[in-house]
Write a structure and sequence with these properties.
Blueprint lengths: L2 H14 L9 E8 L2 E8 L2 E6 L7 E6 H8 L5 H6 L4 E4 L1 H14 L1
Parallel strand pairs: 1-4
Antiparallel strand pairs: 1-2, 2-3, 4-5
Amino acid sequence: MAIQETITQLTDKMNQDPEGIQGIDAVYQFEIEGAGIHQVRLAGGSAEYRQGEEFDADCILTMTEANFAKLTAGQLNPTTAFMTGKLKVKGDLSLAVRLQSLLKKYS
C-alpha cells in the first residue's frame, strides 16, 4: 500500500474515533527514504495529513519505506527499530514513544 494511502487511512481512523488523540498537539514528520516527507498534525482532537513540509515538525522519524510499512502494520516495534538503527528520531522523543500506542490503537 502506498504511504499516502496508509497515512490517510490512519488519520481517517483517528478522526472517526478522536478519543486516543485528545490532548495531543504535535506534528509528526515521516521522512521516508525514496518516498519523500509526510506530516501528520494532531491538534484539537483531530488529525490532518500533508505531503511535504508544511508544518514545523515536533518529532521527525526517518526510515525506509519497508520499515514504515512494517511499523504501521504493527510488525515493527518502534523502540526496537530505534535501538537497531532502523528508525532515526529527531525532536521530541516522548512523542516518538507515544506514537507506538497511537499506531496500536488505530492500525
